[in-house]
Structures
1.
Amino acid sequence: MLKESVQTIAQTIFPEVVDTRRHIHANPELSFEEYNTATYIKERLNELGIPWQEMANTGVIALIQGELPGDGVVALRADIDALPITEVEGRSYGSKNAGVMHACGHDVHTSSLLGTAKILASLKSQFGGTVKLIFQPGEEKLPGGASIMIKEGALANPAPQAIIGQHVMPLIDSGKVGFRAGKYMASTDELYVTVKGKGGHGAQPQQNIDPIVITAHIITALQQIVSRVADPKMPTVLSFGKINAEGATNVIPNEVKLEGTFRTFDEDWRKEAHQRMKKMAEGIAESMGGSCDFEVRHGYPYLVNNEELTQQARAYAEEYLGKENVVDLDLWMAGEDFAFYSQVTDACFYRLGIRNVEKGITASVHTPNFDIDEKALALSTGLMAYIALKRLGN
């Protein structure tokens, strides 16, 4: 009966959820600047008669209290920020804000949670306990909106016994979802390195200390941290994506700047690797006559899905969608600030399939042509509501 009730409401509100997603998609805002998005969320909650409070400047917390006896609390989270990416042209719902795009599906997460809120508000007389809705800013930017929300009390008053989040996945077909218990997504740190030398004419290298050559040695040597120091059973990634040397064909610059990322799944190894990378880079630079400033900006911890909660959520998803529409997930080296929640309370972060090859919807997140098969919005709202209600014991 519960499943049928949820599915019926989800199908009824599907057109509205599509419109909501398109509105949010057309009006993206960067991390910690989501003022209009937050206002829109609060207006929609007001329409549903759901009380809310502001948090972390542009964040919104809301509570839906069931009318039956029950003291359980489940939190549902959606991130609301967009990325500094220019969207491809030609979409009727394309971004109206130049250089800003919902290229990671946060418009899907937000519209889905608003739809879930409508389902739960419609069923208040049929469940006990409390559902806490967390509309969180700044997932895409350090220190991560989740860390700020937690510091300001998002997981208190009332404290949830579980928190659940969903995220789009272009590798999974629309109509399906994916789960993984235990460690799922990597910790993610940002590396900012400045290699200093002595610039001069490229035809007179003997008079200079070439920071480009030093940098080349550092980049190559640091990969030994992954290939020769890390336990082969411990997934570890070290990548540099930006090199800036203000020289020319015949000009050796004074310094080179590097930016990169380090990711893994163990906090002790993470700390050790930071120290080893810094020591190695500084040592190489010094041995070659230069110097190196090696800065590690600590990012998100690794994300762990509570075993019991995730197994429960997966079982509920199989009930709601059919076992054939629930798939296994592999470890994912991307980072996600939902990990902060998973370090505080039982958490389950699952994936919503949005791929449709026939419609040409296959692009990865964080790309200008990213899009979704909106059919996924027919299940994203109902599934989250169903999982929450089942978890509360209804």
Note: Residues 2-26 form the longest helix (25 residues).
2.
Amino acid sequence: MKNKIREHINDPEKLEQLFHDDKTSFEAGFKEVFPDIEKSELAKYWKIRLDYKKQAETAGKINLPDIAVLLISCFIAGFLIKIPYIFNISQDEIFYTRNAGIIVFLGLTLNMIWTNRVFDMKKLILILGAFIILTVYVNLLPSITDSDSINLACIHLPLLLWCLYGLVFIGFNLNDKIKRIEFIRYNGDLAILMALIVISGGILTGITIGLFNAIGINIETFYMENVVIVGAVSVPVVATFIIKNYTILTNKIAPVIASIFSPLVLLTAVAFLIALVISGKDPYSDRDFLLIFNVMLIGVMAVIAFSISETSTIRKQKFNEMILFILSIITVIIDLIALSAIFYRLGTFGITPNRLAVLGSNILILGNLVLLIIDLYKLNFRKSLIGEVELTIAKYLPVYFLWILFVVLCFPFIFGMK
């Protein structure tokens, strides 16, 4: 079947006939041959069609094993996050700084292994070994709270774990760019759903503590230490479960958020640049301002990536495509200002772990933005498709992974651990 699909990939009528002749063989053959034909627009269409069919068939069908794995994943994450309380660890701040990300992504990964039915022993050993090695590595680093290189390693560790989790999410299929796009879209959906759950949980917490206080019982400390902290690490797992099992719900919310949010971010970015000129704020000498500047840059880049992945699902998307094109240009201007300030500080004050880390991330973001601007220009003014822009984001992800890996594993040894 896969040979027939490859042979007739530009013949829509023949593909439709092959599909109706043997749907099971067609789906299996298409999945196997897709990496070889992914540049074909018809192949992309069939990929979306088959994935949607699969989602529609499984939507709402929740079985007991899925619920059990969800609860087990939440229990493991909840137990691990309470280790300082259970074993009376005094340096709980260092414990959470280094292990909170590991605990959250462990719960997510366990649940995703079951969801994607990743039962290949080699793959399981690989992912388990990666978690063990990173956990041992980060906890063997000296307990120095003012070490920039160690702090950077701890800050970038959750990003590295995010990459490993993404590997499980895409089923270890590194050649499947569509799966990478799905992972980007999933992260946007996850952020939205987590925000809703956190807001709901905050309201529930306030009501619960207030009700018990009304009858003279103070449960605030107990509730915070046993319910809130466990709930916090369980939120991403529960949100992922909802996304995977109620795709119709998330598919309706996320595109609307993206279409509303991207114009607002554009207005904010333009207003920020105007205010920067008027206020006379100097990013070249103000270290804290430069840090906030770069955090904003990363946030805007994340919004662009999320909005692009969701724009492809919107029917009337021309307005959104133009907004994203303009936003990308504005973001490049912001990035260039940040880069000039970083180079100035490097030349004036010398190389430090923080400056080098910010420099590396800004250069990577600039490269990604330039590629996106080229694709968005073709999308708005030439006969190009939004899928090409999505593929650019997907192809660039390994570049971020390599930089994150370098910061986590090499910075403490290059700059020392003081």
Note: The chain has three domains: 2-58, 64-244, 255-384.
3.
Amino acid sequence: MKQLDIVAIGNAMLDVFLIIQEQNRFTKINNEEKEICFAYGEKIHVESYKLCIGGNASNVAVGLRRLGFLVGLCVEVGDDEFSQKIMHGFASEGLDASHVIQTKNSPSSFSVGINFGGERTLFVEHVKRIHKFQFENLKAQWFYLTSLGVEWKEAYKNALDFAKDNGVKLAFSPGTHQFEELTAISDVLSATDILFVNKEEATRISNFKFQISNTQEMKALLQVLQSMGPKVVSITDGKEGSYALEADGTVYKLGMFPGNALERTGAGDAYASGFLAAIIAGHDILDAMRWGAINAASVVSQVGSQAGLLKREEIEKKLTDFPEFKAKEI
């Protein structure tokens, strides 16, 4: 039985990104309503497209593998030609796919992203899966548990039970279906070593109400989340950067790493993989935040959620080149 550093449990899919020309008489943005509008019935020119492997678990697994760790996957895919592309992608990245389920006569899950006006809009389809993952033959230091589809509760329970029984540390990043039934993830939160959420997700879990949305309120939000069970809490906040709360109650804030953002798909997953990689490698939370931010900045500079994921030597070089990029205690 191979000893793995971490196993990512969640979903995998294909992402198709359509890049539309900025100057286009059939397309416009309504900034007031935050809407993108297309002329009805027209043929709209696409400048280019990208076909990429995506999905939260897949993204984090690839990120950690490129950073030098032995990584396994518990995801469920179909058996169509697109699923074969997903499986080939896992193999080319060097992931352990021995616990990937390929369901017969089932298609791949897809998302379609429209890149226009400096932002991306996603249309996501999740094929219904059963997620009967078998954990008995796994040997890992960490689980990264993330978004699953409608039938997620049994898979979550089995992963949690296995982690508790085998001393596996747990990193947790809930997804859309988990946010719809927050009471059902309370057991997972209570056993979580590191919780990864963005600001909006953090407020949904905690029911926290911002008054003026300042640094002290972010600190209070982190503390509320920690009171629900996680030892360490990480919150990303878009262009504001990220925050982290240590097990001892110390809170840190880090700004965005400098760079040009093309589109933001996979930024949170890239941050989580960089953060976790530093922790598994024995670094402290300050370094973990830096690794996460650098990885995220690289991902958003390219189209798709995996193309910009960095190798360890690339992150280490950026750390050397930007010694002033450090988190501060708040």
Note: The chain has one domain: 4-12+55-107+128-329.
4.
Amino acid sequence: MNKKVFVGMSGGVDSSVTAALLKEQGYDVTGVFIKVWQPDFLECTWKEDRLDAMRVASVLDIPFLTLDLEKEYKEGVIDYMIDEYRKGRTPNPDVMCNREVKFGAFLEWARNEGADFVATGHYAQTDGKSLIVSKDKNKDQTYFLWTLDSEKLKYILFPVGGINKDEVRVLAKKYNLPNSSKKDSQGLCFVGTIDIKTLLKNYIEEMKGDVENEEGEVIGFHDGVTFFTIGERHGFTITKKSNEDKPYFVIRKKIKGNVLVVSHTPPHENKGDIISLEKVNWTKDLKAGGVYEARARYRAPLAKVEIVDKESIKVLSGDITNTSGQSVVLYDGDVCIGGGIIV
């Protein structure tokens, strides 16, 4: 085919198999390790990850490059995340990482360097126009990719999206990849398994405040409302115990008063509730009254929603927790038709 494709290689198994599959299919493949900003207080692993990616590129006999996107990652992902938390919202940094870094700066750079496509190890599929759920539904990552539009999708390939995760491991061994047994990465995009609150507390000052029940009675304390999200059930201290030994859930945040309101009943949006969205991206023309499936958390069960207008939806059934800053992603069957950020 001789089409030139730059593969974002993280050193992990999925992106490594992505490169191997594309080479086998006849593409002119170049591996690219994206170097991003990492905080000084974290143990730095990018050099080890890059070395893993280089070893894979050597086995596959493909060129290998390192692309420095520290500035783009710091400003587009980390600074955005901290600013959102300061406002009392709960952002999704992985969504921003895909938008600003992998399919923002990386895609733009690759196209300028003469690449016909970029590819990643995401579990998703595309026909060049639409974003489609991966074959392995349990690993599907379209929730984090809702910002992609048809203008970008025509330059993106997701080779492992058409196979199951266990098959990817088998292929890694078949291609004799040196990282075939490497564990999957978890946590914040690129940064890894750091607790979000640990990261935030290096940038946002702790401020002790009250925990109230639904009646307004003070029953405990916390270290700052900005560190909590709606639905969370850990991290605050209950000093006034009740006879019911049930967990408390955060159902509301009073930002000005630095107060958490908790309840034994977890928060959820009831039938008929309206959710307002901003920064929306739709890959099809949505009509008022149209009914689709949606989720507001990765891997959450799909709920049924109705389109009110292009920036608001109505919950018909299921659970859509109304957490400002989080993403609501809509599906029409197996096609991800976009989403928006909860206002």
Note: The two ends are 45 Å apart (CA to CA).
